[in-house]
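As practice, study what follows.
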Amino acid sequence: MAVAKVPSQQFFIRGEWVAPARGGKIPIICPTTEEQIGQIPAATAEDVDAAVKAARQAFTRNNGKDWSRASGKHRAKILRAIAGKCFDYYADLAEKLDEKQYSPIEVPMEQFKSSVLRETLGVIGLITPGNYPPLMGTWKVAAALAAGCTAVLKPSEVASVTCLELGKIAQDVGLPLGALNIITGLGPEAGAPLSYHPDVDKVSFAGSYNTGRTIMKAAAETVKPVTLELGGKSPLVIFDDVDLDKAVEWAMFGALWTNGQICGATSRVLVQEGIAPAFLKKLAAWTSSIKISNPLEKDCHLGPLVNDTQYQKVKDFVKKLKTKAQLSSVVERGLLIWRKVTFWNRRFSLMSLGNKPPPGLGGAVISKDEGRCKRVAELLDAGIVWINCSQPCFCQAPWGDDPFGWYPASKL
């Protein structure tokens, strides 16, 4: 019996059928006769880029109202229509093939049942940073143990003592031996072996972007899942209807909480242009009043950075910023450190600034109009957005998924 030829094919990109950029073809071989019955187009990087751009544009078009932020009802209507067309197509195809082939086996599906069994994953490697070790350590340990997993916790070498205290508590309450294990050490000697250890089933890490990439690569050696919470440059959006004193206070707190050593610090401040001069004046006054001293001393506002390495990094950032420019309405995104204050006067420019790389783990919006705050919060590409504040954290709530945030969204 002759095998029907497959019609010429093209790519489906942005609702249109298009030919490959380089004209490449891949033959379709019939497995029965081993003869060529058609061709499909062969994609190259140019075609991939066109398809990805189309998908990204569709995701953000009309602020997402076309699809990504459309109602579930709207998406369901379209998906059901697609499903109906698929059924009609294959039902018609089956009728055409009915007298031309026999099914190899018959599978009466009513004889089978399906069930889902949730099981614990196994041993979890937990690697935490030094900016607030008790919170990060307990977050990760609690989630792992509650799920029935066992854990190995490696806190940052610059802030390990409080996490070791967690071991004493576990010992006192009678946690089964080995359910929680705590080791300390440097990343290359302790963190890396934990990441690629063949008997570790998952790795959860919070810390820098570069270290997160290293851990992801190490975990890939044994094809284990990872959860990453990485740093970014989180935006703080300030509208012109605010109480300036409160806005300045939240701007400073959002950027300098834990001495600025925090992944979600809202240090990219976007101020509506009309209030910029007054905001800067109050910001300068507030900054000059900060008392930097030993945190054990009375009235200390700002203590030291965790070590000299971090101190030198901050000095280097400040040096680079000074050599470029002062506060400006023009943002130069090539800098490792953004302008601390950026001005905008149109909503479009606000969202383009707030969502441009480097992305933020979090974000904040300050305005007396709560409805406006919620609308802007929905448009910011961030895992968590604060409204009329910055940095309050509720352990009961999930820490959201975003490009530089949790990967995937999880407390574990």
Remarks:
- Confidence is low (pLDDT under 50) at residues 328-344, 402-412.
- Residues 120 and 146 are 10 Å apart (CA to CA).
- Residues 72-97 form the longest helix (26 residues).
- The chain has three domains: 1-51, 123-230, 235-387.
